[in-house]
Amino acid sequence: MDAVKAWAPAVGFTLLPHAGGFLGSKITRKEIPVWYESLQKPSWCPPNWVFAPVWGTLYTSMGYGSYLVWKELGGFSEKSVVPLGLYAGQLALNWAWTPIFFGAHKTGWGLVTLLLTAGTATATTASWYSINKAAAYLMVPYLAWLTMASALNYHIWKDNSKKKQPE
């Protein structure tokens, strides 16, 4: 039983971000073939098949990073409120983006949500750096992807805001 206790938190923290990704994928799968395909996108937009493996990797990295911070700080404690609170905030914003962008077709509000996510993820990374450098480094690919995603969301919003979108 002690072996389970040793690895269960690592697995739980690592899998937690995937929960929102899984739920969001239900919305995304429905909207890609009609609505998303109808949008004008920049030439550098990644192909649709890239998004699932990238997000799977990013969710795993950030989840394991959160475990490292939690473990380093001795679990949930007064010391963990800010670094894990920032993490929870950016994760909630991350999960909110899909229903806003894909579900409600609100590309402008999606961009706002994405920029808030990027800012909160940056603050999370900065707060983690002094606690566990590896955890902070695990967030760097996510920050890079959020930068690209923000630029993509901006172009989609700008290039499609004047035309009526299919519902």
> How far is the first residue's CA from the last residue's CA?
52 Å
The coarse silhouette is: elongated
Computed Rg = 17 Å
Number of strands: 0
Instruction: List low-confidence stretches.
Output: none
Q: In percent, how much strand structure appears in the residues? A: under 5%
Put simply, the count of helices is 5
Average pLDDT score: 94
Helix content: over 70%
Along the chain, the helix and strand elements come as HHHHH
Class computed from helices, strands and strand pairing = mainly alpha
- What kind of sheet is the major sheet? none
Description:
The protein starts with a helix and ends in a 7-residue tail after the last helix. By secondary structure, the chain is mainly alpha-helical. It contains 5 helices and no strands. 81% of the residues lie in helices and 0% in strands. The mean pLDDT is 94. The protein is elongated, with a radius of gyration of 17 Å.
